[in-house]
Amino acid sequence: MRVAINCDLGEGFGRWDLGPDAELLELITAANIACGMHAGDPPRMAATVRLAAAKGVGIGAHPSYPDLQGFGRRYMDMAPEDVRDFVTYQVGALQAFARACGARVEHVKAHGALYNRAADDEATARAIVEGALQADPDLVIVVLAGSRLEQVARAMGARVACEAFADRGYDARGRLVSRREPGAVIHDPDAVAERVWTMLREGRVRTVTGQWVPVRADTICVHGDSPGAVDILRRLRQHLLDQGVQLVSIGQLA
């Protein structure tokens, strides 16, 4: 069994840091790097790419709506062709920094509200895939398992990696529970490790209301800005290795 562990990184801005990126890069196999629209800036993008490349961690672009103040978590009324071009712009910027240090961008994972809208909205899903493939037709599109984005990406012939969330609650539709709701974020490292192993072994996850829903987990996301993220990742990584799981980058998966 092979799986990638991913985190969203480079999400500070200017003099402000968000998340212990250097520590996280010791534990993950794929980095989703902010591209300046919800967080990040050129120097931070360059530094995060260089550090990921030095650690042998797969590099991915983490494009979003242009929403610095709202951290990309607010839905925006944008035409699909504008979403497409904003995605291409962000991926292309990260590709330039990757080339500068002899690395390459392997995957694209949309951020926040853009990712959540694409889970159910076909036009948004198509715009994300088109925007990514304009930049590089070999990019892997990271999708919420069972979502409209997964269906659209596969129909468009893109390489796909299905994502499950280690530290976030699910609802009965297999979607992420709003961060404003009880049970939205899970902080116990042991609970997270067991939950992920159940996802991988049984292909299902228990919802916040107690039901089981199917889930495919090619790559597991842990949110690096959550309290205790390093402890969660350390416990999860060791648990998966103890079970004989091979940890690889997203580019090696798809």
Q: Mean pLDDT, as a whole number?
A: 95
How many beta strands in the DSSP annotation?
A: 10
CATH superfamily: Glycoside hydrolase/deacetylase
Total count of domains:
1
The percent range for strand residues is: 15-25%
- Shape call: globular
Order of helices and strands: EHEHEHEHHEHEHEEEHEH
The strand line-up of the biggest sheet is 1-2-3-4-5-6-9
Q: Round the Cα radius of gyration to an integer and report it.
A: 17 Å
Gap from first CA to last CA = 13 Å
Q: Which descriptors apply to this entry?
A:
254 residues; alpha/beta; TIM Barrel; seven-stranded parallel barrel; globular
Describe the structure.
With 254 residues, the chain is α/β, with parallel strands linked by helices. The protein has one domain (2-253): TIM Barrel. The protein is built from nine helices and ten strands. The strands form two sheets. Strands 1-2-3-4-5-6-9 form a seven-stranded parallel β-barrel. Helix 4 packs across helix 5 and helix 7 (189-202) packs across helix 8. The protein is globular.
Give a brief outline of the structure.
This protein has nine helices and ten strands. It is of the alpha/beta class. The radius of gyration is 17 Å and the shape is globular.
